[in-house]
Specification:
By secondary structure, the chain is mostly helical. The chain has 14 helices and no strands.
Length: about 300
């Protein structure tokens, strides 16, 4: 009896301690979050705060040239047209690429909802570019679409063109790279959202005489619109931070002078860390503005769950 009482004592003590902590609003299970919180603080919060601080510490050269005191980096960014125009150049690439990937993935995802032979093979081929990465994709484009690539060799050999087409090292090359790398993500997300739409809704509309256009416009699209907005945001952020493609298959000093390249130029070539931090911060601000606009449109269009299984 004594042994039983001694064995039960630690349990009562432990339960009592847990009860006292609970009364003070402390859950011992929250201690499991501490390592993740410290990791987030060390890898994200502190570097982010440090980067913001750098933007208000311009180098002497920047301060002498542009003035502005602590805001000299921002004055330099918006005062130098070569750097300032990179915002528009990046948007010219990211917005069309994201929009194309979302629009192109929608009909393909709807077709692949059905069951047919070869569906798994086709799906695997569509998502295969995910395994390549941006660098391998850019290298492949140089091999296939370069001036001495297979495409130009074929066109020249068949007499369809008199001189090689310029398919890379320009705006078109970077856009093609963004489509290749971004389409699999858009396709997977749209497919996931489509899987959350009950097919009996379309079947019921079909029995009432609605054609496929009416079913898509009145049932599928309204239910899918929030998911399309989310897909657009994710693919836009992916395309906005383009760097390898803009450098390898683009024109880094001209038509594809994106913000990421400007940040790299300040960091690695000019060793101007405060200016590089300023450009990186402004990249985040531009992305947040676009994301806020898209989600505001989404909230006006539809309120409710978006469905999906992914």
């Amino acid at each position: 009896m004594t042994a039983t009482t001694q064995a039960a004592a630690p349990a009562r003590s432990s339960a009592s301690l847990r009860h006292r902590l609970a009364e003070r609003g402390i859950d011992p299970l929250l201690l499991l979050v501490v390592p993740a919180a410290l990791l987030t603080l060390a890898l994200f919060v502190y570097p982010f705060a440090y980067g913001i601080g750098l933007t208000f510490q311009p180098t002497e050269r920047t301060a002498d040239q542009w003035g502005g005191g602590a805001l000299a980096n921002y004055v330099a960014f918006f005062g130098d047209s070569f750097v300032r125009d990179s915002v528009w150049i990046t948007m010219r690439l990211a917005l069309p690429a994201a929009l194309f990937n979302v629009v192109a993935s929608l009909p393909i995802a709807m077709v692949l909802r059905r069951k047919f032979r070869g569906k798994r093979l086709m799906t695997s081929l569509l998502v295969l570019p995910i395994t390549l990465g941006t660098v391998l994709t850019a290298q492949g484009l140089l091999i296939f679409a370069g001036r001495q690539g297979w495409i130009n060799r074929f066109l020249l050999g068949t007499g369809l063109v008199d001189e090689p087409l310029r398919l890379v090292n320009n705006y078109f090359g970077v856009m093609l790279s963004l489509v290749i790398t971004g389409f699999p993500f858009a396709f997977l997300l749209v497919s996931s959202y489509l899987s959350g739409i009950d097919p009996t809704l379309e079947a019921a509309a079909r029995t009432l005489g609605a054609g496929w256009v009416q079913r898509f416009r009145r049932i599928t699209l309204p239910l899918l619109a929030p998911g399309l907005a989310t897909t657009f945001v994710l693919t836009f952020v992916l395309a906005f931070s383009v760097f390898p493609s803009a450098r390898l298959v683009g024109d880094p000093g001209g038509a594809t002078r994106v913000m990421a390249l400007m940040a790299y130029r300040s960091f690695a070539e000019q060793l101007d860390y405060p200016m590089a931090s300023t450009i990186a911060l402004l990249m985040g601000v531009v992305e947040l503005v676009v994301v806020a606009v898209v989600f505001a449109w989404r909230s006006l269009l539809y309120k409710g769950s978006t469905g999906g299984k992914g």
